[in-house]
Specification:
The complex is a heterodimer. Chain A is mostly helical. Chain A contains eleven helices and no strands. Helices cover 83% and strands 0% of the residues of chain A. Chain B is of the alpha/beta class. Chain B has a domain of 174 residues: P-loop containing nucleotide triphosphate hydrolases (Rossmann fold), CATH 3.40.50. Chain B is 36% helix and 25% strand. In chain B, strand 1 and strand 2 form a beta hairpin. Classes of the chains: A mainly alpha, B alpha/beta. Chains A and B meet through helix 7 and helix 8 of A and strand 5 and helix 3 of B.
Chain lengths: 272, 256
C-alpha cells in the first residue's frame, strides 16, 4: 500500500510562509479596525445620529484635516510633557531603586513616601503644581513623572534584585567588585523588569500629561479637550481621542521595538 | 597545598533552630591534584565547595586555600567556579561570556586568550550565539572556558555535568580530562556519580551522613591520559566497586 508523506518544507517555502505570516499579522488587525470604523460610519448615517452626540468617523477626520496644525501642536506639547515625565521618573527610579536594591533600610525608608505619592490622586496635586510652577512645561512634566514614578521604581528594584545566584557566585569567586557586579550583572538582569515597568508607564505618562493640561488649561491635548468641551464641539473631542489613542499606540510600539532589540536574549523573546 | 581544610563545621539557621551541614571535615588537595568529592544529595558537598571558594564563612574550623585564606585566594584571582546550572550571562554571546572573566580580572591580551579557550573547549564556531541558543552540554563548555580563562590555580566544580543527559555527560567528562591535561590546575570536583569521580580524579573523597563528614579516601592510580575505553577496564571497575562499597557502608544517620 502506498503511503503519501507530505512534502518536506523547503527553506524557500518556509521563508515564504513566514513572510505571509507577517503580512497576515499586519493585514488582519488593520482590516478589523477598518470594519469597525465602517460599521460606525454606516450606523451613524442610517440612524441619523446627531453630530453633537456621536459624530461619524468621516466628520472626525474632517475636523482633523481642517485644522491639522491645531491638533499637531497640541499633540506635540502633550508628548513633550509625557516623555519628559517618563524620563525623569525612570532616572529617579533608577537612582533610588539602586539605593533600595542595595540596602533594606533605604528600601523601607523610601517605600512609604513613594507609595504615598502613588496613592495621591494627581487631580489633587495639579492645582498646587500650577501655583508653584505656573503654566509652563514644568508642572505638566512633573505630573507625568509623578504618575509613572511608582511602577518604574518597583520594577527597577525587583529587577536589580533578580540576579541569577549562580552568576553572582561566579563573579564573586572572581573577586568582582560591587561596581562590576552592578554593571555586568544587576543592570542587565533588571532590563526585562524595567521594560515591563515602561509598558505600564507609557500610557500612564500620557494620561498624566493630559490631566495636568486639562485641569490647568495650560496647553496641549488637555487644553484642546477643555476648549472643545466648552464649545460643544464633539467632533473635535473625538479628534482628540483619536490623536491620543494614536500617540499611545505609537509610544507603546516604540517601547516594544526597543525591547525586542535589547531583550533578544530573554526567555520571552527566544520563544523558549 | 592547594586546599587544606581542618575540622570544618558549618551550621546555618533554619526556622528556630540550627542545621549542621558539615561537622569536622578534613580535606587536602595537593597542587595540581584532581580530587573528586562523592556523596549523596544533602551531605554538604556544595557547602564544602562554597566554603573553599570563600562564598560561605565556616562556623568553625580552618580553611586554607593556596597557602592563605580563601578570601586572599579570591583576591589573587586564583579561583575558577563551575556549577551545575552555570549561570551564564544570557545577554552576552559565548565569546563575551568568556571575555567577561578577563574584563573583570583585567588581563592583557583578552581577545586572544578568549579565542584560545573557545577553541580549546571546542565551541569557537558558536562564539556569536547566546546561551539560550545552546544545548546543556555546550553551555557547560562555555562555563568551563570562562572559569579557566584567567588561568586559575584552583578550579572548583559543583556537579557540573549533573543536569546533562547521559551522552552529553560522557562526552563532557572526556572533554574535561582533555582540557585538564593541558591546563593542569588543581581541581575539587563535587559529584554524586561514582563512575565520574573514579574516571576523572587522582583521589576520591567519600562524604557521608548528616551532618556531612569525610568517611574515606581512595587513591585512583589509573594511568593518564585517561580515555573513554578506561571504563571497560578491570582496575577501573574494581575502584568503582570499592568507592561504592565505602559510600553505602556508612549508615545514613550519623551522630545524634
Amino acid at each position: 500500500m502506498a503511503t503519501d508523506f507530505p512534502d518536506p518544507i523547503s527553506p524557500e517555502n518556509a521563508l515564504k510562509r513566514r513572510t505571509l505570516g507577517t503580512v497576515v499579522i499586519i493585514v488582519v488587525p488593520a482590516l478589523i479596525s477598518a470594519l469597525l470604523l465602517a460599521f460606525w460610519e454606516l450606523w451613524v448615517r442610517a440612524r441619523d445620529v446627531k453630530e453633537y452626540l456621536l459624530p461619524a468617523p468621516s466628520a472626525v477626520l474632517r475636523v482633523l484635516a481642517d485644522e491639522p496644525g491645531r491638533f499637531a501642536e497640541a499633540a506635540y506639547l502633550s508628548l513633550q510633557a509625557a516623555i519628559g515625565g517618563l524620563i525623569i521618573a525612570s532616572l529617579g527610579a533608577f537612582i533610588l531603586g539602586t539605593a533600595m536594591a542595595h540596602s533594606r533600610v533605604l528600601e523601607r525608608s523610601i517605600y512609604p513616601p513613594a507609595l504615598a505619592l502613588k496613592v495621591t490622586p494627581i487631580v489633587a496635586v495639579v492645582p498646587l503644581f500650577t501655583i508653584w510652577f505656573g503654566f509652563g512645561l514644568m508642572p505638566r512634566v512633573l505630573i507625568a513623572a509623578m504618575i509613572t514614578f511608582f511602577p518604574m521604581l518597583v520594577n527597577t528594584v525587583i529587577g536589580l534584585r533578580s540576579v541569577d545566584p549562580r552568576a553572582h557566585d561566579f563573579l564573586r569567586a572572581l573577586n568582582a567588585s560591587r561596581w562590576q557586579i552592578f554593571w555586568h550583572l544587576r543592570v542587565p538582569s533588571s532590563l526585562p523588569y524595567v521594560f515591563a515597568g515602561l509598558r505600564i508607564s507609557v500610557p500612564l505618562s500620557l494620561i498624566g500629561a493630559v490631566v495636568a493640561e486639562f485641569l490647568s488649561g495650560s496647553a496641549g491635548m488637555g487644553q484642546l479637550i477643555l476648549i472643545a468641551n466648552g464649545d460643544f464641539d464633539t467632533p473635535a473631542l473625538f479628534g482628540a481621542v483619536f490623536v491620543l489613542a494614536g500617540l499611545g499606540i505609537v509610544l507603546t510600539a516604540t517601547v516594544a521595538l526597543i525591547e525586542r532589540k535589547y531583550l533578544f536574549w530573554h526567555d520571552s523573546s527566544l520563544g523558549a | 597545598m592547594a586546599v587544606e581544610v581542618r575540622g570544618l563545621s558549618h551550621r546555618y539557621p533554619v526556622g528556630d533552630g540550627l542545621i549542621t551541614a558539615l561537622e569536622g571535615v578534613n580535606l587536602t588537595v595537593k597542587n595540581g591534584e584532581f580530587v573528586a568529592v562523592v556523596g549523596r544529595s544533602g551531605c554538604g558537598k556544595t557547602t564544602l565547595l562554597r566554603t573553599i571558594a570563600g562564598l560561605l564563612s565556616p562556623t568553625s574550623g580552618q580553611v586554607k586555600v593556596l597557602g592563605g585564606s580563601s578570601d586572599s585566594a579570591r583576591q589573587a584571582r586564583a579561583l575558577g567556579l563551575v556549577t551545575q546550572d552555570p549561570g551564564l550571562l544570557s545577554w552576552l554571546n559565548v565569546a563575551s561570556n568568556v571575555r567577561l572573566t578577563l574584563d573583570i580580572t583585567g588581563e592583557e591580551g583578552r581577545d586572544e586568550r578568549a579565542q584560545e579557550l573557545l577553541e580549546r573547549v571546542g565551541i569557537a564556531e558558536f562564539a556569536r550565539l547566546v546561551p539560550g541558543q545552546l544545548s546543556g552540554g555546550m553551555r557547560q563548555r562555555v562555563a568551563l572556558a570562562r572559569a579557566l580563562a584567567h588561568r586559575p590555580k584552583l578550579l572548583l566544580m559543583d556537579e557540573p555535568f549533573g543536569a546533562l543527559d547521559e551522552l552529553s555527560r560522557e562526552e563532557m567528562r572526556l572533554e574535561l580530562l582533555r582540557v585538564w591535561e593541558q591546563e593542569r590546575t588543581s581541581v575539587v570536583f563535587v559529584t554524586h556519580s561514582i563512575r565520574e569521580a573514579v574516571l576523572l580524579a587522582d583521589r576520591v573523597v567519600v562524604m557521608n551522613g548528616q551532618p556531612g563528614h569525610v568517611t574515606a579516601e581512595v587513591l585512583i592510580p589509573l594511568e593518564r591520559p585517561r580515555l573513554g575505553t578506561l571504563e571497560e577496564s578491570q582496575p577501573y571497575r574494581e575502584l568503582v566497586a570499592r568507592v561504592r562499597g565505602l559510600l553505602w557502608s556508612e549508615p545514613v544517620a550519623h551522630g545524634d
